[in-house]
Specification:
The complex is a heterodimer.
Chain A (H helix, E strand, L loop, with lengths): L1 H43 L6 H7 L8 H8 L1 H31 L7 H8 L1 H4 L2 H12 L5 H8 L15 H28 L2 H9 L4 H29 L3 H7 L8 H10 L4 H33 L1
Chain B lengths: L2 H34 L4 H6 L14 H7 L9 H32 L5 H10 L5 H15 L5 H25 L3 H9 L4 H30 L2 H7 L8 H10 L5 H30 L7
The chains are: A mainly alpha, B mainly alpha.
Chain lengths: 305, 288
């Protein structure tokens, strides 16, 4: 009995050692490249640091709250925060709505469904640099096809500065991102729809439910867990989005979202401390928003369990 | 007519409209890209509405110009593509090598800190990449990896590892552990179980993980911008395209050819492995 227990605990010890050995490389890479930089950022946000100071003194500069005072009293920061929230909410709601409509339209079999579904994912998998470039050219006032079509066929008086004039620029960036990310929602909602049992729906039809009632009362409630997950995921990604906005507008014309502002503080004015403080405050906002969201959806998740 | 049949027929029509509109919206930008890449720039400026070039005005000079090295009067995309390919292949190979043992351990072995690892990977996404990029860049400069493809590969591995672990772990969790136990009774060691049983069973998902990290690495832009801006001979395709597009001197249709070259490898890979990739990404999604 005693010997047996010792043997199991020895096996346990071995299992634990093996487990840690196998996971260690991944954890080390993530820690070195992601966690350490994040901690470093937080430290830097309490220092009045420029590149020279970081190069000379590393982490050990005088600690100060000035960066946070600067960030919180800067109108440009609050403007960037408002822009980020508008952008994140609009792209999240937009891409999930379009993705849901697409998933419903593709639910029943039709000819060429499989290849068309594959094609629909192209905006998501294609390189962002290539697709933003195509959009830039297509929307260009001088040689873009959209403005040519608008002025010559639709009778617009002037070409529209889609990407270089406020408030159109933010709207255009949002439309681009709905275009780029709806396939993601389409993919996940499509998978969730395939997983639903048809029996409940058939019962609803037998009871005389119209197609819209069937969607609203039977299908949608079953999709809500997936939708809630997608909202969470897309909000976080959109809140931290950099590439799309930077590549389309460079942050001009009222499209300076948080990440782009951080980038400009770093590269433009090489204000590392300020950039770090901006990023830290943004992360806190996101964290609080997530906590509220998780609290609000907690009951729904309980019910689904 | 009853409400049911009215709604049904309206929805039937709407469904076709929606499918046509969505397919058009996704495909047309790519058609535009492909077609402009064969247009002469003066033709584009003369008539921007003419998207498909006249047959006798089609040119492949754009591709020659964008691919040729700078000594030959081109823009060096052949080299950019080689850089991108090296980085993406290395990143995806390394990711798989790291992720397979880790996901195996996370699904099969009990050890201290197991659940913390999962939380760590989730927490990573709360912070914008830009804020990770700068300290990494400064740190790599100190180590002498700053302006090199090696540094870029390490960064890409770190970026793709969390999602890759998630994909593979979901899949492994679905393989019954009794297979492992049977092998243990037959006297197989942990390493043998992993290489002879787990890896072959999980091969489809391992492939989609590799593909996923290849795509992330091939498409990535921000790290390349911070690490390699100053070193033109190390530019990746994404970086090369944006750098050249910033100036006025390179014609847009030549850059369209560059966009096609940037996009085509991804589309081919995706076409080959679409099913594996989408199933890998949505694994566990139907469970909510």
């Amino acid at each position: 009995m005693r010997r047996g227990r010792r043997r199991t605990s020895k096996l346990r010890g071995r299992e634990s050692r093996d487990g840690i050995t196998l996971v260690a490389p991944v954890v080390l890479v993530v820690a070195a490249i992601i966690v350490v930089p994040i901690v470093w950022t937080v430290v830097l946000s309490f220092q009045d640091a420029r590149y020279v100071d970081v190069a000379r003194n590393g982490l050990f500069n005088e600690l100060t709250l000035d960066n946070y005072a600067d960030v919180l009293t800067s109108p440009a920061f609050w403007q960037a925060l408002v822009t980020t929230v508008q952008y994140s909410v609009a792209t999240t709601v937009g891409s999930i709505t379009v993705g849901l409509v697409a998933a419903l339209a593709f639910r029943d079999r039709f000819r060429f469904r499989a290849p068309l579904r594959a094609v629909m994912l192209l905006p998501y998998v294609a390189p962002v640099v290539a697709t933003t470039f195509v959009w830039q050219v297509a929307l260009n006032p001088q040689y873009g096809v959209v403005n040519a079509f608008g002025t010559q066929v639709l009778g617009w008086e002037h070409p529209v500065n889609f990407l270089s004039a406020a408030p159109t620029a933010l709207g255009t960036v949002i439309v681009y991102d709905i275009w780029r990310y709806f396939p993601f929602a389409f993919l996940f909602l499509g998978a969730a729809l395939t997983g639903l049992s048809k029996e409940i729906e058939e019962a609803a039809v037998v009871d005389g439910a119209t197609p819209l009632q069937k969607f609203w009362f039977v299908v949608l409630p079953q999709l809500l867990p997936t939708v809630a997950l997608l909202v969470l995921f897309r909000m976080v990604m959109a809140f931290n989005e950099f590439d799309d906005v930077y590549l389309l507008t460079g942050g001009a014309a009222g499209t300076q979202v948080a990440s782009v502002r951080v980038f400009e503080q770093l590269t433009g004015s090489s204000d590392i401390g300020g950039a770090s403080a901006t990023a830290a405050v943004m992360a806190v906002f996101l964290g609080v928003a997530l906590a509220i969201y998780l609290r609000l959806t907690a009951r729904q998740r309980e019910e689904n369990r | 007519m009853s409400a049911v049949s009215v709604q049904s027929s309206v929805l039937r029509v709407l469904r076709v409209v929606v499918i046509v509109a969505l397919v058009a919206a996704t495909v047309l930008p790519f058609v535009y890209m492909l077609s402009l890449s064969f247009v002469r720039i003066d033709d584009l400026l003369r008539d921007p509405l003419r998207v498909l070039p006249q047959l006798d005005r089609i040119t492949t000079e754009t591709y020659r110009a964008v691919l040729a090295s700078e000594e030959d009067g081109g823009y060096g995309f052949a080299r950019f593509m080689r850089n991108s390919a090296v980085v993406a292949v290395a990143a995806s190979a390394l990711t798989v090598a790291l992720v397979v043992p880790a996901s195996y351990a996370l699904t099969r072995l009990r050890f201290a800190g197991r659940s913390q690892v999962s939380w760590l990977f989730l927490a990573v996404y709360l912070f914008p990449t830009i804020i990770i990029a700068v300290p990494v860049f400064v740190g790599f400069q100190v180590l002498g990896l700053g302006s090199s493809l090696v540094g870029l590969v390490i960064a890409y591995v770190a970026l793709t590892v969390p999602v890759s672990v998630h994909m593979l772990r979901n899949y492994l969790a679905g393989i019954p552990e009794s297979i492992d136990e049977a092998a243990v009774i037959d006297g197989a060691s942990r390493f043998q179980i992993m290489t002879r049983i787990t890896v072959p069973l999980a091969m489809p998902t391992i492939m989609s993980t590799a593909l996923y990290s290849f795509m992330i690495a091939w498409n990535e832009f921000l790290f390349a911008l911070l690490f390699l801006s100053a070193k033109q001979d190390l530019w990746t395709v994404s970086l090369g395209l944006t750098r050249l597009a910033d100036g006025q001197e390179v014609s847009k249709t030549v850059l369209m050819a560059g966009s096609v070259l940037l996009t085509v490898p991804i589309v081919i890979l995706y076409g080959v492995a679409e099913r594996a990739l989408t199933e890998g990404l949505t694994a566990g999604a139907d469970k909510g």
